[in-house]
Amino acid sequence: MTEWILKASQLKDPIVEVADRAEALPAKISWLLLGCALQQDISIAQLQNFLLELQKKIDDVAELPAPTEAWVSSVISKSKLKDWRLVSQAAGIIWSVGRFARARQNRLDLWAKNHCPSDLWRECSEIFYMGKHNPLRPKILLFLHRLVSFSPMGAGTLPPLPASAGARRWLIQTNAYDPGETPKEKLKTVNFLYKELFPENPAMACHALQFFAEPVDENSYFCQRIFPCGKCPVPCRLA
Description:
Layout: H1 2-8, H2 14-19, H3 25-38, H4 44-55, H5 69-78, H6 90-102, H7 108-113, H8 117-124, H9 138-147, H10 165-173, H11 183-197, H12 202-209, H13 221-226
Helix pairs in contact: 1-12, 3-6, 3-9, 11-12
């Protein structure tokens, strides 16, 4: 498993990779926020493809005029995401992230630099579908840990590493998943898992396990980039 984590750590986070295509730092952070807000009930490869399609017309999420709902729907259709649970919310999420950035003079780099992680966490709750109904705000945890790739934050301790579908899948496959746990208990469990899998750098295990969330079949895009099935050290149903 250590070998798998080390190999997976060489892959750039797909959402960070999309955000990094923007020219200016504030725009990069806006795209990062959008990717995290949309990361729900969708594979990371599908989300990356959808964001790349959006970028063909949108340079900066904060720019006006905002994309129309009809155009966003056409991109969803082109990306073959008609059954995605966020189909009807996607346009609103894009508008909300843009409004959030504009409210901060489209200088999210300065906003990040001048606020501690706990304040950033609190303010991100203003964004539509950013996890307001979950007290731990898992999408905001994702954003804060990805933000490290782009911008310093104000003094303060980062929150726990975020859970992921890949971490949940790993726990299920090792019979360590407890569906009865509270969200806080589940977060504690996955952080223990990261530390157990890679004590030297738990964040690396967190990063790697997001790629383990893929449907394991011949179309497992990220898994195949880590190890071909025949050489993969991680047991799964295809092995």
